[in-house]
Amino acid sequence: MARIVVVGAGVGGLATAARLAATGHQVTVFEAADTVGGKLGRYAHDTPAGSFHFDTGPSLLTLPEVFHDLFEATGAKLDEYLDLVPLDPIVRHVFPGGGPALDSCADPVEFAARIGAAFGDRAAADWQRLWRRAARVWNASERDILRRTVDSPRDLASLAWRVGDLAAIAPGRTLRGLGRRHLSDPRLRMLLDRYATYTGADPRRAPAALVAVPYAELAFGGWYLRGGLGTLADALLTRCLDLGVVVQTGARVTRIDATGGRVHGVRLAGVTAPVPADVVVANVDAITVYRDLLPRPRRLAALTDRSLAGFVLLLGVSGSTGLAHHNVFFPRDYDAEFDAVFGDPGRGVRARPAVDPTVFVTVADDPMARPAGHEAWFVLVNAARQGIAAGAVDWRRPGLADAYADRILEVLAERGVDVRDRLLFREVRTPADLDAATGAPGGSIYGTAGGLLRPANRGPAHGLWLVGGSSHPGGGLPMVTLSAQIVADEIGPAW
Question: pTM higher than 0.90 for the full model?
Answer without folding.
Answer: yes
